[in-house]
Amino acid sequence: MQNPHQSSEISSRRKNFIIFFIVLVGLIFLARLFYIQIVDHRYKIFASSNIQRIITDYAARGLIYDRNGDLLVFNEPYYDLMVVPGQVRQMDTLEFITLLGITHEQFVNRLQSARVYSRFRASVFERQISKNTYAVLQEKLFKYPGFYVQPRTLRKYPHPVAAHTFGYVGEAGPADIAREPYYRPGDYIGISGIERHYEEVLRGQKGTRIILVDALNRDIGSFQDGRYDTLAVAGTDLYASLDLELQLYGEKLMKNKRGSIVAIEPSTGEILALVSSPGYDPNLLVGRVRSQNYRMLQNDTLKPLFNRALMASYPPGSVFKVANFLIGLQEGGINLNSRYSCPGFYRSGGITVRCRSHPQPVNVVTGLQYSCNTFSCIQFRNTIELPKFGSMQQALTTWRDHIVSMGFGVTFNSDLSHELPGQIGSADYYDRIYGPRGWRALTVISLAIGQGEIGTTPMQLANLAATVANRGYYYTPHVVKAIGHPDNLNPEFLTRNVTTIDSAHFEVMAQAMFETIESGTGRFSRMPDITMAGKTGTVQNPHGENHSAFIAFAPVDHPTIAISVIVENAGGGATWAAPITSLMIEKYINREIKRTWFEQRILDAAF
Known about the structure:
Helix content is 37%, strand content 19%. It is α+β, with helices and mostly antiparallel strands. The chain has 2 domains: 53-240, Penicillin-binding protein 2a (Domain 2) (Alpha-Beta Complex); 244-604, Beta-lactamase. The strands form 7 sheets. Strands 2, 3, 4, 5, 10 and 18 form a 6-stranded mixed β-sheet that branches. Strand 2 (64-65) and strand 3 (71-83) form a beta hairpin. Helix 10 (244-253) packs antiparallel against helix 20, helix 13 crosses helix 15 and helix 13 (321-331) packs antiparallel against helix 19. The protein starts with a helix and ends with a helix. 40% of the residues are buried.
């Protein structure tokens, strides 16, 4: 028989064991609950995602207008189909893929990629679905749990012009996301042009909405009446300096030609027109067809993606005599009384530079007016060999410093992307080629006529015309006039860039360029009612026909436009580039073309 005392002791141990077991189980449950609710957020996210949907409201990018208020770039709505893989359930896959126009393999691969990214965060399943597909999808979306539609916008261009200037928008890459926490996979960012330079201004600020959904994936209202929502803030509008009518006309004149037109308002540096031909319709690089069209344009042998106005580097030819004559006057290599005869060539040692027949003798004005190569070579050699320099290295360095002060050999660091600096020969360069004592003025005499070790962009040539128009200074050429409001001028480009040449010498060049149009090499492009100052150039091209070049500004006394035109493989500057310049100036100042016969000749030409 069991001892009552022993029985009581066993009963007590059982009771204690049961209590311990219950407490242990309770602690295990508490620990598990703590882990699930506090440490591991997966279950909380999964539970929340079943009733909540976080939607990003993408801000509309700022609009872009021209200088007169005409709309150049706006936004058009479109839709992305999003997926949250953790919410996807059994559904009619065949109906779904038929509606989207994709294969079953694409469906499986996209869903798998989305799972790899995150089971609980939304990612894009199908980009930029059409309005018709969106309309049908909205009615059937409840049948496809885990899927919803995200509204977005695409850029739209009402006029197929100025594609290089606007640039384009594309998806932010890994480098963009790593550099800027604002961006997430699937976000869009400016890739080039205005869209790139003013990205932070144009993009605005994304917003966030939390909505509740029912078991059928239908929207049933805001979470806590929108307490945790944030509003999207639209991007800021920009007012480009472009004149739409002039831009359209410039692209019309350059149709079937290779080259560029750059027109600048001298008093501000605002770019009135920037034409690179051949160009392309900016709408081609928008939406689902962007990648396909980009490859097509990239493979085009005419290189429509290449921005000739900013990236092409040409020897400037006789146009460069304007800069060289200015340096000669500044340094004392020539003066207003310098006169030389021209026998039809310049010859020294074994070097001969040919010249055309023109009135004799020539001075600094008539030397430019008739584009005399002989005068150009004499004045250049006189300047480089001035005793005050002491060495060829110092002489050429001084010459180059003057050239750089006029905007050559460097980039302007403006709001135009992919600008190249061109090339200006330096003393170090010639020292490497010939040795410090192996070269002299005759070695580099080709610089006198804008050939040799020199390359300039059409933008730099237009800026030279603007600098002469201003009589010695320029504003950095730029393409955005104002930000947010037409009167809110862009603060980046309000500072004058003053050259190292005295203003009085620019007055002489302005007069010489005026005489060039009145009775010199550019006389066939003279206008009856507008005074124009210009300089022709024939750019030697070792790969084919010479390039036609011309710079000008007008009116002469109070210039409102400065311009450069390059027409590749078109021959002399007076034949094609000068007439195009003349028409552009007439269009800008008079807003109409009266010389229709003159215009038709240009429109019919092709190179």
